[in-house]
Design a protein that fits this description.
By secondary structure, the protein is an alpha/beta fold. The chain has eight helices and 15 strands. Helix 1 packs across helix 8.
């Protein structure tokens, strides 16, 4: 009878993966659609010089992050609790970037943290930007100086997070500090920043906390979501839309539109509204 044990997928390659089980790292062939973060059963292969095995079962996922295309979806990572959006002045994080990932977090039922990195750089515009998102959880740090880093470490306890941010926003530096291990990085040829070039990986901070790094998350688009999924990604607009006169209100020029009324009353931020309309129009152009 072959030995079966349970573990977590911590690295994923094109045709294989690495599973951590009983403090061992075991190279495995995978079932279809296995992703980093999956809890799996593996059947150990006997008589090999290095531990190896075959994944025989994927346990139900608490969450799944997918890249959605016109015809099918591609799973990227599972069992994530929080999407952590890096906000920096250099490189500049736009509200459109933030709103895109807030929509995705809503779609996949992930909690959100806005992580303002590089607070050692004074920039009043960042505070103005963050004020737009005051209803979301925000932590301010400087990964370079270590300022307020303990607050992030305390916050992450018991969570599994995935970072999203522009190249050069500090994802690798922050992850390295959290896990106590330097990650290999390569500088971009145009000097726009630094990015990690690796396969999808899960890094354990402790027994109950982890960081998932999946290069595919950079390429996720929202062009193939539904109008309803875009709308629910803007909670304040969604709530106002429930009071519109017409169920099919376009929130542009229909009579008695509560979204427009809330916009005029500054209950809804104008930049958030503009991004919502832009995302909806992009759907129509796909």
């Amino acid at each position: 009878m072959k030995k079966v044990q349970t573990g977590t997928v911590i690295e994923f390659y094109t045709n294989s993966c690495l599973v951590e089980s009983n403090n061992q790292r075991i190279a495995c062939t995978g079932l279809k659609n296995v992703v980093v973060g999956d809890v799996v059963d593996i059947e150990l292969t006997q008589d090999t010089s290095k531990p190896s095995g075959k994944i025989t079962k994927i346990y139900p996922r608490n969450s799944i992050l997918k890249k959605i295309g016109p015809y099918k979806s591609k799973p990227l990572a599972s069992n994530i609790t929080h999407l952590c959006i890096l906000v920096t002045s250099k490189p500049k994080t736009t509200k459109e970037f933030i709103d895109k990932y807030l929509v995705l977090a809503s779609k996949f039922n992930l909690s959100v943290l806005l992580l303002n990195n590089k607070t050692d750089i004074e920039d009043n515009a960042i505070e103005e930007l963050l004020n737009t998102y005051k209803d979301y959880e925000i932590i301010r740090i400087s990964a370079k100086s270590g300022s307020n880093f303990q607050e992030l470490k305390k916050w992450i306890l018991g969570k599994s997070i995935i970072f999203v941010g522009n190249s050069g926003s500090g994802k690798s530096t922050i992850t390295s500090k959290l896990i106590g291990k330097d990650l290999k990085t390569n500088k971009l040829s145009n000097n726009q920043g630094v990015h990690t070039t690796s396969i999808s990986s899960l890094y354990k901070i402790d027994d109950v906390s982890s960081v998932i790094d999946s290069p595919g998350v950079r390429d996720i688009e929202i062009s193939y979501l539904s109008k309803e999924e875009i709308l629910t990604g803007f909670p304040e607009i969604f709530e106002a839309s429930k009071k519109c006169k017409y169920n099919n209100c376009n929130h542009l020029n229909n009579d008695d539109c509560e979204v427009i009324n809330s916009l005029k009353s500054n209950i809804i931020d104008s930049s958030r509204y503009q991004n919502y309309i832009k995302f909806i129009k992009n759907l129509e152009n796909v």
